[in-house]
Specification:
By secondary structure, the chain is an alpha/beta fold. Helices cover 34% and strands 16% of the residues. The termini are far apart. The structure holds zinc ion. Zinc ion is lined by residues 62, 64, 84, 307, 432-433. Residues 53-377 form the Amidohydrolase-related domain. InterPro entries: Amidohydro-rel, Metal-dep_hydrolase_composite, Metal_Hydrolase, Metallo-dep_Hydrolase.
């Protein structure tokens, strides 16, 4: 086993821009050199990139953990996944695996998210801790920290009034949770499903918005307010398009660069047309891209996240779809790549990753072609290293236990959808989160 690896004859995207480097060397899991000339030392393993492009390992900034998620994500170049809520036992097992095994992506997790009794998504798990007022915020955050949560997820106000509205946290409780998290140095992520909810969580001073509302036009003044506050937005278009009836999963399955790494069960998952809103009147998906476009125009930091394994998505492959969709919102390929590398690392305080630079973790993806010209070139993955360890890339096939857990997740999503329908609630909460 060589002590170090040098990738030569490469182009290098450093997380923000294309550099003039042609070579990257790493040893003991850490990048040691990036240079325009040769970096290989005597005895190094030398890999000829043949003009391919080195990217930082990808970060999926919005998943929900099920067993197998981290292994599957890594096979598509996702070296770090951010879990936007899972039960504490699921989080604990995933973290233990990520710490012990090189063949799974690393993970950070919110653990359980904050919501009101009976609110979204408390129908998913029992028992589900909830809050009834701001005086409970400090204890809620303390409990999550004790369970191992790395950041705090808040389910924002529903934005729907009247007898059919789902119960949701009031503004005072959201503000108290945000303050309690910030006192502990924790990043706060807020789920929103409406423009009204978005305005409320922006006022509360959260750090990250999950999803983009489609119940109206996100106006320029609100986009500028978000930009000025330094709040990042992860729109999760890869799930949104399926929820709003577009065949996004089928588009993933139709690309042989992605399909070649997916087993039959995963292909069925993508092509089953499992739109949660089938047959219902929903806003057009195009509004989601228009609203993200306004955020991009205003200079808001965008984070690439899939919301996998929601209907029509699979771990890893769907992140490449998300990058394509972000491009449709007006992001340049470099901006889209930044949204899956350096941007989430900065927002979530992951200082050791997200960039190709000396001293960074050797989380690297080598793709053939030029994703800075054609963003879908990220799908032509040649090699993946996770903290310097090469990924043995082969199609992920869930074992029986993993398949069972994924089925259970789907059943929980169905329960949430049923709970929402029972209240004749709007489209936005039919996703798992
Ligand atoms: Zn989610």
């Amino acid at each position: 086993m060589p002590k170090a690896t040098a990738i030569v004859n490469a182009r290098v995207f450093d997380g923000t821009r294309l550099r003039d480097w042609t070579s990257v060397r790493f040893a003991d899991g850490t990048i040691t050199d990036c240079a325009t000339g040769p970096t290989a030392h005597d005895g190094d393993e030398v890999i000829d990139a043949e003009g391919g492009t080195i990217l930082p390992g990808l970060i999926d900034s919005h998943i929900h953990l099920v067993p197998g998620a981290l292994a599957q994500g890594l096979t598509f170049g996702v070296t770090t996944a951010l879990d936007m809520f899972s039960p504490p036992d699921v989080m604990a097992v995933a973290k233990e695996q990520a710490g012990a095994r090189p063949d799974v992506a690393d993970v950070r997790s919110a653990g359980i998210g904050a919501t009101a009794p009976g609110g979204h998504p408390s129908a998913m798990y029992a028992p589900f801790p909830t809050l009834t007022g701001p005086e409970q915020a400090e204890q809620f955050v303390a409990d999550r920290v004790a369970e191992g949560s790395d950041f705090v997820k808040i389910f924002g106000p529903s934005g729907t009034a009247g007898p059919w509205a789902m119960p949701s946290l009031n503004p005072a409780t959201i503000a108290a949770l945000t303050e309690a998290a910030h006192r502990r140095g924790l990043v706060v992520v807020a789920h929103v499903n409406s423009l009204a909810g978005l305005r409320e969580v922006v006022s509360a001073g959260v750090d990250v918005i999950a999803h983009v509302p489609v119940d109206g036009e996100l106006d320029r003044s609100l986009a500028e307010r978000i930009a000025e506050a330094g709040i990042a937005v992860g729109p999760t278009l890869a799930t949104t398009e399926n929820v709003l009836g577009e065949p996004g999963g089928a588009a993933v399955a139709a690309d042989p660069r992605l399909a070649g790494m997916l087993g039959d069960a995963q292909m069925r998952r993508l092509t089953s047309g499992a739109s949660a809103q089938h047959g219902r009147k929903t806003p057009p998906y195009s509004r989601a891209e228009e609203n993200v476009g306004r955020l991009v125009d205003a200079g808001v930091a965008i984070l690439a996240g899939t919301d996998a394994p929601n209907p029509g998505t699979v771990f890893g492959a769907s992140l490449h779809r998300e990058l394509e969709l972000l491009g449709r919102c007006g992001m340049t390929p470099a901006q889209a790549l930044n949204a899956a590398t350096a941007a989430p690392a900065r927002v979530f305080n992951l200082a050791d990753r997200g960039q190709v630079a000396p001293g960074q973790r050797a989380d690297l993806v080598l793709v053939s072609g030029d994703p800075l010209t054609d963003i879908t070139a990220t799908r032509a993955v040649e090699r993946i290293w996770r903290a310097g360890v090469p990924c043995d890339r082969r199609a992920f096939v869930a074992n029986a236990a993993e398949a069972q857990e994924l089925d259970a997740f789907d059943a929980r999503v169905a329960r949430v959808v049923a709970a929402v329908r029972e209240r004749r609630y709007g489209f936005g909460q039919s996703k798992a989160d």
